[in-house]
Amino acid sequence: MIYAFGSNGSGQLGLGHANDISTPANSRHGRDQTSTTVRQIAAGGNHTLILEGDGHISAYGSNDCGQTSSKSVRLEAAHPNLLPSVADTELDIIAQVSATWNASIYLRRSGEVATSGEGLSGELGLGRCATRAPYPQTVPDFPPQGASVVQLASSMAHTVVVLDNGEVYGWGKGRKGQLGKPAEDVFSPRKIEGIPFPAVKAVCGTHFTCIVGNHAEGNLVILGYNSRDRFGLVASIPATVPGLKDIAASWGSLFVLKQNGELLGFGRDDHGQLPSPDIPLIEAIAAGSEHCLALTKAGKVLAWGWGEHGNCGEPTDYHGDVKSRWNEIDLPPSQKVTAVYAGCATSFIVTASDH
After folding, report:
1. Is 236 in a helix, a strand, or coil?
2. Alpha carbon distance 43, 345 (integer Å)
């Protein structure tokens, strides 16, 4: 099961309507979910991609520039006027997905990367003249011969790709240095030079990229904020976090989860994005635009940060924030949480029945 809440003006929660909600509701409206598993959820500005265990995708939300219109995607209307249906034929098998504000990035099981949607600053990675792709287009000559993609990561307007040889490539908006040097928009995959260790994972904020090396050693490097580290992210994060388990990024904050369950936060905190010092031990994390979801080691889901659209549950303060505290998200007692995901003021909880 998928429970969704938060921003839903384009039907991106898959609830069968287009109203924001603050109480988790069953997503993938009207579908039999007993026969499918969820491998990954990626959310753009107003669209959502749900990667299923069989390598197919369910897509919800805006399709105004082709970000969900794809032969590799099962398009299912959250509302008849919000998303057209397309026949489920000639499907590509997908291994991984990510999303910028108006684009979708797909890693095919064949090893190729494809993109669809809109990218005025190079978000599609298809070359300087390709700013819109109504259907997925294969990124040419990528990955390099002899290398394979192990991870995709995207934020508002840029994407980075980690390869099995430890190299990282990126494309999209790069004027803050989030794609390395030179600090400019990048329209085709470009290798990020100068990473002092083999990369195993990367996450993206709006104006930065964090690249992670060996988890036991906890090697980290931040790219971006060349001219102004407004929220002190680059200045505050250490070069290593030994015992690192996972990492996540919101638009302006970075979250580091350690093997012992300790959750560290760095960067922007004006809406309460960073975790409270007394937060319980955490098993898994997901960062959205300016909010965070966490699954505790006790099996509870917590949410905090900017929650104006209901994406942090209730209550919020006058400004729509859950600040210096957290909300515990209630779910049916029969449901065991297996994963959490977050997008642009959207929150998703994946569960399995105990029965």
Report:
1. helix
2. 10
Return the DSSP state at 30: T
What tokens were used for 242? 């030994």
Decide the pairing of beta strands 73-75 and 57-61: parallel
Q: For domain 1-140, which architecture applies?
A: 7 Propeller (2.130)
CA distances from 22 to 13, 17, 264, 327, 345 (A): 12, 14, 26, 11, 11
- Neighbour order of strands in the sheet with 263-267: 244-249, 253-258, 263-267
Write out the two tokens for 135.
């259907």
Whether the Cβ atoms of residue 342 and residue 287 lie closer than 8 Å to each other: yes
pLDDT digits (tens, 9 = 90+) for 118-129: 999 999 999 999
Structural contact between residues 15 and 79, judged by C-beta atoms closer than 8 angstroms: no
Least confident of 48-52, 96-100, 170-174, 284-288: 48-52
For the cut 80, the answer to whether the pLDDT of residue 327 exceeds it is yes
Domains of the chain by residue range: 1-140
Residues whose CB falls within 8 Å of the CB of residue 324, separated by 6 or more in sequence, listed in order: 272, 276
Distance CA 127, CA 217 (A): 37
DSSP state, residue 207: S
Q: The pTM is what? A: 0.93
Tell me: the pLDDT tens digits for 211-224?
Answer: 999 989 999 999 99
Q: Is 267 left (phi over 0), alpha (psi -120 to 50) or beta?
A: left
